[in-house]
Write a structure and sequence with these properties.
It is a single chain. By secondary structure, the protein is of the alpha+beta class. It folds into six domains: about 1-60, Orthogonal Bundle (Helix Hairpins), CATH 1.10.287.610; about 85-310, D-amino Acid Aminotransferase, Chain A, domain 1; about 315-390, Beta Barrel (OB fold (Dihydrolipoamide Acetyltransferase, E2P)), CATH 2.40.50; about 430-500, 5' to 3' exonuclease, C-terminal subdomain (DNA polymerase, domain 1, Orthogonal Bundle), CATH 1.10.150; about 505-585, DNA polymerase, domain 1 (Orthogonal Bundle), CATH 1.10.150; about 595-665, BRCT domain (Rossmann fold, 3-Layer(aba) Sandwich), CATH 3.40.50.10190. The chain is about 35% helix and about 20% strand. The protein has 24 helices and 20 strands. It has a five-stranded mixed beta sheet. β19, α23 (about 640-650) and β20 form a beta-alpha-beta unit. α1 (about 1-25) packs antiparallel against α2 (about 30-50) and α16 crosses α17 (about 515-525). The structure holds adenosine monophosphate (AMP) and zinc ion (ZN).
C-alpha cells in the first residue's frame, strides 16, 4: 500500500511539473504522448485505490462536476474596478494626484497589458487552490471553483510553498487561436458562432458542466496578489508568484517615469495586434506596495492604479454592396463588400453584418461611409455609419426575401435571428455543402475529392446527394474538365475505401444538425448501430449523458424525413458501416508511436489476438514479457498477480482496456 501511495504522489508531482512547464513556462520537456501515458497511469491507480482521492489531482482537470446553481460568495477583499484614462494629459493628472498624496517627487510604476476577459479571484490555502470566484458586482461573485480547476494554466497545487493563505487575481481569457477553432467547430456542427472571445470566456465560466468547460481552451493570467506586502513591490510579487507556478503576464515593465510609461503604451498600441489574445489597454500601477497601501481606494477604484484605454482600431470605408451567403444548413449570412482599407495591419474588404436585425439597427445603406473595427471576430465588423456623408438618394437596405441561390422564399422562425432557405433538397449550395461535409477529413475522409470536384460533379448532374457518390463510374468522370484517368481513378478508389470508415465517423458525416464529432462518437458508442438510434424516442435520447434537447429534437427530425431514410438505406446497400465495431479497433494510426506494450489477462471488447492486431494497427509493438523497456501494460480480467507486481516494481504503467480504447480513439 505504501508503494502505491508513493507512486500516486510521484505521478501527481511529475504531472504538475510538466503541466507548469507546458502551460506556464511554455517549455515542455516531454511529448504530449508521454504526458498522456503518465496521466492514464494516475487515472487508473486513482480508480483502483479511491482512498487516495485528492480534490486537486491533475486527473481532475478534465472536469466532471456539475453545478446547477453557483453559490454566491462575498469577497473577503472587494474587487474594485479601474479608473480609466484616454490621453497623456489624463495620466499627468493622475500622477499629480498621487505625488501630492504621497508627498514625494517621483514614483515607480509598472505597466501591464489590460487583458480583455473575465476577472477571477483565486484563494489558496496551504499551497492548494481552494476557491475560484468571479468578480460579480465587486462585493459578491459566483463560486466557479469546479470550472476554474479545468483551466490548465491555473495551478491546483503550487510548485513550492508561497504565502500561507492568500488571494490572487487575474483574468480568464480565451486566446484568439482557440476562439477561432471553437467557432469553426461550432459552425461545422450547425451552431451559431460565438460573437467574441471575452463573452465566450465569461460564458464558459458559468457553464454547469465542468467537463464542457475543460474542452474550452481557456487561459488565465494573474496580475495581483492580495493582502501581502512581503515582497515589497508589485513587480517582485509577480516574479515570486511565477516561480511557484502562476502564469503572470510576460509583458510587464517597471518604469521610473511617465515618459517610460508612454513608450510602453505606444509600443503596445501597435504590437498588441500580434498577440494571440485581446487587450483593450494598459494598466499602470504604483510599484511599491507600501505606497499602494498609503494611497488606498476611492469609492470605486484603487488610487494606485489606472487603466489607459487604447482607441479601438477603426477605419473608415464605404459600403459597396451586400452579398448574401447560404450555409450548409440553409442559414443566410449577409456580408458587406467594402472599399478596401488598411486596418490593424491587414487590408479589409469584407465585413460581417450578421443578420437582418443588425442591418436595420445600424441603418446601414449601400454607398454609406462606415466605421469598421476589428475585434476577436474572424472578419471585421461595421460599428457605425457617418450620417453626415450619406447620399441624398440613399434608401434603406431591402433585405432579400428569396434565396440568392435557388430563389425559394426565405423563412425566419420565431426567436431566430437568421433567415433560412427551406429548400433543403433543392438548394444547390446546401446540397453541395452537405456533400462537402460528408467527404471532409473528419468525416468520410475521401481522398481525391474536394469542394471543387464536388461542384464539378454536381454541375454535371452526376451527383445530387452523398449517396450518389457510390454510384459514380470512372467513365462518367473522365470527360469532366481538368479530369484525367488518374484523378478519376483516385476518386473511385477513395470512395470505395470510405466504405470501411467506422460508424461514428459515418454518423458525423450524415450532417445531422448539432451532431458534431464528439456527439456522433457518443451516440455511436451508446446505441451501437443506426437502427437502434433511429428507433429511439426523444425521452430516451435525452436520457443519454451529454445529449440535450436540441440534439435530440434534431435527430428525431432527421430520421423522420423520408428522404434521409432513403439515403441511409442506399448507403447500407453500398456496404457502409452502420454498426460500431469496437473489436477491430476500427482505426489505424501511428498513435502508439512504436511503444512496447505487454498485454495480460482476458479482455471484454477484444480477443487477445484482436487486441494484438489493434496495437500493431496503431503503430505499437507487442512484447510477451515485462521488462524495464516496456512502455505500458494493458491489464485485462484475471491478470496474474506476478505480472502486476513485476510491472509495479519496474514502474511500468498499467492501463485498462477502456484506457486503451480511449487512447486509440482519441485521434
Ligand atoms: P474595468 O472592468 O474596465 O473597470 O477594468 C477593471 C478590470 O480590468 C479588472 O477587474 C480586471 O478584470 C481587468 N484587468 C485586465 N488586465 C488587468 C491587469 N493587468 N491589472 C489589473 N486589472 C486588469
Ligand atoms: Zn436556397
Amino acid at each position: 500500500m505504501e508503494n502505491i501511495a508513493q507512486r500516486i504522489n510521484t505521478l501527481r508531482k511529475t504531472l504538475r511539473e510538466h503541466n507548469y512547464n507546458y502551460y506556464v513556462l511554455d517549455a515542455p520537456t516531454i511529448s504530449d504522448y508521454e504526458f498522456d501515458l503518465l496521466l492514464k497511469e494516475l487515472e487508473s491507480l486513482e480508480k483502483r485505490y479511491p482512498e487516495f482521492y485528492d480534490p486537486n489531482s491533475p486527473t481532475l482537470r478534465v472536469g466532471g462536476e456539475v453545478t446547477k446553481n453557483f453559490e454566491t460568495v462575498t469577497h473577503r477583499n472587494r474587487m474594485y474596478s479601474l479608473d480609466n484614462s484616454y490621453s497623456k494629459e489624463d495620466l499627468y493628472e493622475w500622477e499629480k494626484r498621487i505625488l501630492k498624496l504621497l508627498g514625494t517627487e517621483a514614483v515607480e510604476y509598472t505597466c501591464e497589458l489590460k487583458f480583455d476577459g473575465a476577472s477571477i479571484n483565486l484563494t489558496y490555502k496551504d499551497d492548494k487552490l481552494v476557491q475560484g470566484v468571479t468578480r460579480g458586482d465587486g462585493y459578491q461573485g459566483d463560486n466557479v471553483t469546479a470550472n476554474v480547476k479545468t483551466i490548465k494554466s491555473i495551478p491546483l497545487v503550487l510548485q513550492k510553498p508561497f504565502l500561507e493563505e492568500f488571494e490572487i487575481r487575474g483574468e480568464i481569457i480565451l486566446p484568439l487561436a482557440g476562439f477561432k477553432q471553437l467557432n469553426e467547430q461550432r459552425i461545422e456542427d450547425g451552431f451559431e458562432p460565438f460573437s467574441n472571445p471575452r463573452n465566450t470566456a465569461s460564458g464558459s465560466l458559468k457553464m454547469q458542466d465542468s467537463r464542457e468547460v475543460a474542452k474550452r481552451p481557456l487561459d488565465c493570467l494573474l496580475y495581483q496578489v492580495v493582502g501581502s506586502n512581503r515582497f515589497l513591490t508589485h513587480y517582485n510579487t509577480l516574479l515570486e508568484a511565477k516561480k511557484v507556478g502562476f502564469k503572470v503576464p510576460e509583458d510587464i515593465k517597471v518604469c521610473s517615469s511617465l515618459q517610460e510609461v508612454f513608450a510602453f503604451i505606444e509600443y503596445w498600441d501597435k504590437a498588441r495586434h500580434q498577440l494571440d489574445y485581446e487587450t483593450d489597454g494598459v494598466v499602470i500601477k504604483v510599484n511599491s506596495l507600501a505606497q499602494q497601501e498609503e494611497l488606498g481606494y476611492t469609492a470605486k477604484y484603487p488610487r494606485w492604479a489606472i487603466a489607459y484605454k487604447f482607441k479601438a482600431e477603426q477605419a473608415i470605408s464605404r459600403l459597396l454592396s451586400i452579398d448574401y451567403q447560404v450555409g450548409r444548413t440553409g442559414a443566410i449570412t449577409p456580408v458587406a463588400n467594402l472599399q478596401p482599407v488598411q486596418l490593424a495591419g491587414t487590408i479589409v474588404k469584407r465585413a460581417s453584418l450578421h443578420n437582418a436585425d443588425q442591418i436595420e439597427k445600424l441603418d446601414i445603406r449601400v454607398n454609406d461611409t462606415v466605421f469598421v473595427e476589428k475585434g476577436g471576430e474572424i472578419i471585421p465588423k461595421i460599428v457605425g455609419v457617418d450620417l453626415s456623408q450619406r447620399l441624398k438618394d440613399s434608401k434603406p437596405v431591402a433585405y432579400i426575401t428569396h434565396c440568392p441561390d435557388c430563389g425559394t422564399l426565405l423563412e425566419r422562425k420565431e426567436g431566430d435571428a437568421k433567415h433560412y432557405c427551406p429548400n433543403h433538397y433543392g438548394c444547390p449550395t446546401q446540397i453541395k455543402g452537405r456533400i462537402e461535409h460528408f467527404i471532409s477529413r473528419k468525416a468520410m475522409n475521401i481522398d481525391g475529392l474536394g469542394a471543387e470536384t464536388i461542384a464539378l460533379l454536381f454541375d454535371a448532374g452526376l451527383i445530387h446527394n452523398y449517396a450518389d457518390l457510390y454510384e459514380l463510374k470512372k467513365e462518367a468522370i473522365i470527360p469532366l474538365e481538368r479530369m484525367a484517368e488518374k484523378s478519376a481513378d483516385n476518386i473511385i478508389k477513395g470512395i470505395e475505401a470510405s466504405k470501411k470508415i467506422p460508424f461514428e465517423k459515418l454518423l458525423y458525416a450524415l450532417g445531422i444538425r448539432y451532431v458534431g464529432e464528439t456527439v456522433a462518437k457518443k451516440l455511436a458508442f451508446h446505441f451501437k448501430d443506426i437502427d437502434t438510434l433511429m428507433s429511439t424516442d426523444f425521452e430516451h435520447l435525452i436520457a443519454v449523458d451529454e445529449i440535450g434537447e436540441s440534439i435530440a429534437r434534431s435527430l428525431i427530425d432527421f430520421f423522420n424525413d423520408l428522404l434521409n431514410i432513403q439515403l441511409i438505406d442506399r448507403l447500407k446497400k453500398y456496404g457502409l458501416q452502420f454498426k460500431i465495431d469496437e473489436s477491430k479497433s476500427t482505426i489505424q494510426s501511428d498513435i502508439l508511436g512504436r511503444k512496447k506494450i505487454v498485454i495480460s489477462g482476458v479482455f471484454t471488447k477484444f480477443s487477445r489476438n484482436e487486441l494484438k492486431q489493434s496495437i500493431e494497427d496503431n503503430g505499437g509493438k507487442v512484447s510477451s514479457s515485462i521488462s524495464k523497456n516496456t512502455d505500458f501494460l494493458i491489464a485485462g480480467d484475471k491478470m496474474g498477480p506476478a505480472k502486476r507486481t513485476k510491472a509495479e516494481s519496474l514502474g511500468v504503467p498499467i492501463i485498462s482496456e477502456e484506457d486503451y480504447i480511449g487512447m486509440i480513439f482519441k485521434g
